[in-house]
Write a structure and sequence with these properties.
Blueprint: H1 12-21, E1 25-28, E2 34-36, H2 39-44, E3 53-57, E4 64-68, H3 69-82, H4 88-98, E5 102-104, E6 111-113, H5 116-122, E7 127-133, E8 136-141, H6 142-150, H7 154-165
Antiparallel strand pairs: 1-7, 2-6, 3-4, 3-5, 4-8, 7-8
Length: 171
């Protein structure tokens, strides 16, 4: 149970269901940064959408990571077990990792607001891509997403696939 008395239920199965279908969604952000969750994604994430969503700037790319509350709680719990709060280095890491994190509610029409600083970070204008990434969803500006996908040649992608997923992966 959390401090509020609510039981945190891992929502990995919801995200997992979406990831297994590996559907990438394209949608639009309005002038205020509101994004309507596509129907197919809304169906898969039904239970997760009853709680708030967590939005955070990505560490590696100019996109936003979207986590259901339960997934975010799991990450924070993992950090609690790994970080030493008496270590400056650990506190610096935690501060940087959680900088810019925002909570977002899904309204009655199935929209959530991406706060302006996050829109600016990810250069989100109008066209948005929601792309699955294991236990979270990446939110990209459509043009930047396409650039990212096309930045890896087919040959390099094949070599990377073999390295990561081949017989000797992880050894």
């Amino acid at each position: 149970m959390g401090e509020s008395g609510k039981k945190f239920v891992p929502l990995a199965q919801n995200i997992s269901a979406m990831i297994h279908s590996f559907v990438t969604y394209q949608c639009k952000a309005d002038s205020k940064g509101r994004v309507t969750i596509p129907v197919g994604l809304k169906t898969v994430l039904d239970k997760a959408l009853q709680e708030n969503l967590i939005l955070k700037p990505s560490i590696f790319k100019p996109c936003i990571e979207l986590y259901p509350q339960g997934e975010w709680q799991e990450i924070m719990e993992k950090m609690r077990t790994k970080l030493n709060l008496f270590s400056k280095q650990h506190l610096d890491y935690l501060r940087k990792y959680t900088a810019g994190v925002k909570e977002a509610e899904v309204d009655a029409t199935g929209r959530f607001l991406i706060p302006k600083p996050l829109c600016e970070f990810a250069k989100i204008d109008k066209e948005v891509v929601l792309a699955p990434a294991l236990n979270f969803i990446e939110i990209w500006d459509k043009e930047l997403y396409e650039q990212e996908i096309n930045s890896i040649s087919e040959e390099d992608f094949m070599a990377l696939t073999e390295k990561i997923m081949g017989d000797d992966a992880g050894q």
